[in-house]
Design goal:
- This protein has helices at about 10-35, 40-60, 70-95, 100-105, 110-120, 125-145, 150, 155-180, 185-205, 220-225, 235-260, 260-265, 270-285, 290-320.
- With about 325 residues, the chain is mainly α.
- The longest helix has about 30 residues, at about 290-320.
- The protein is globular, with a radius of gyration of 20 Å.
- The two termini are about 25 Å apart.
């Protein structure tokens, strides 16, 4: 880890709470729109509106000069990772209950802990590795390997999509911690929204007329490939809300992971799980099945253990560090 990296855990946690609350609203709105609009149209509108709000934040944090970077290739890679994370998760939302998809995605903090070993050089002991293994057991239980497709009401591939999203999201947040040393949160968010714009325009040029869509295909594929349509009047406000949410999410999470250690920040994203259950029940009338509740308990429990273990090791390190007297 770069010695110049900031460490402001209290402020970072506040940004995580704000960002995760915005994510919960974002996911609920996208699931609402998934039956009538293509994913790439939603992503385009969300990124276009979000980038307008984001440019205002750029002015507040230093003006146009903060967008200049010599690490453009790393920012591009981070943008691609975020696009993959979002697209795979949103595709899962079209076919899975909101709480189920979100619970599977929340293996991300465990991926962050695991990947911080090779990518950031952080040391993770046997107890935390054991907790990570228990968390992944929760994912296996939610996948219900003993059930058939009719019982699952979704293909095995769809059930894996949130896990792919979690892996790419974890890689993104580890890169945010490294790149945040030299980049402001608003600039990091703008790079992400710009990548979304390019990808969604590419999808429009290739598949925007719906030529690859089929009424017989799975809900996720219909969501990905159906033709662009002009938003209905009642949905215009939903698209505007998505754009504002995109700006809030991009800024808050970029700020959180650039000013505090990933092992401190990541577990507080678990507030998104009860929020997903709440929105799923309130808007769609869905409650998770017992296997998902077990998986949620294992993932949250293991994630919180990793966090508490990290805090204990930090306190022990402070106690044993020699006091400088001169």
């Amino acid at each position: 880890m770069n010695a110049n990296a900031q460490n402001q855990p209290g402020i970072a946690i506040a940004f995580v709470f704000a960002g995760v609350f915005a994510i919960s609203i974002n996911d609920m709105l996208i699931k609402q729109l998934s039956g009538g609009y293509p994913l790439h149209e939603i992503v385009f509108a969300r990124a276009f509106i979000g980038i307008l709000f984001g440019l205002g934040l750029v002015q507040l944090e230093g003006g146009w000069r903060i967008l200049k970077t010599s690490q453009w290739h790393w920012h591009l890679l981070r943008g691609i990772l975020v696009v993959i994370a979002n697209m795979t998760f949103f595709l899962a939302l079209a076919a899975l209950p909101l709480a189920d998809a979100t619970a599977l995605f929340f293996v991300a903090p465990l991926f962050i802990t695991l990947l911080s070993i090779p990518l950031l050089g952080e040391k993770v002991g046997a107890m935390r590795l054991g907790a990570v293994a228990i968390g992944f057991l929760g994912v296996v239980i939610m996948q219900r390997p003993w059930a058939d497709v009719q019982t699952l009401q979704a293909s095995r591939l769809v059930l894996l999509l949130p896990v792919v999203a979690a892996l790419t999201y974890a890689l993104n947040q580890l890169m945010t911690r490294k790149l945040g040393v030299n980049s402001k949160a608003s600039a990091l968010a703008i790079y992400i929204q710009g990548t979304f714009l390019v990808v969604s325009i590419g999808f429009f040029l290739i598949a925007g007329d719906g030529r690859f869509a089929s009424a017989d295909s799975a809900p996720s594929m219909q969501f990905l490939l159906r033709a662009w349509v002009w938003p209905a009047q009642e949905d215009v406000w939903v698209f505007l809300g998505l754009g504002l949410n995109a700006a809030v999410i991009g800024y808050c999470l970029s700020q959180a992971y650039r000013i505090a250690d990933v092992a401190t920040v990541a577990p507080f994203e678990y507030i998104g799980l009860p929020l997903a259950v709440f929105w799923g029940l309130l808007i769609f009338g869905d409650l998770p099945v017992w296997e998902v509740w077990v998986g949620i308990a294992l993932i949250i429990g293991s994630g919180l253990f990793v966090f508490l273990r990290e805090r204990q090791k930090a306190r022990n390190l402070l106690k044993t560090r020699p006091i400088r007297t001169g």
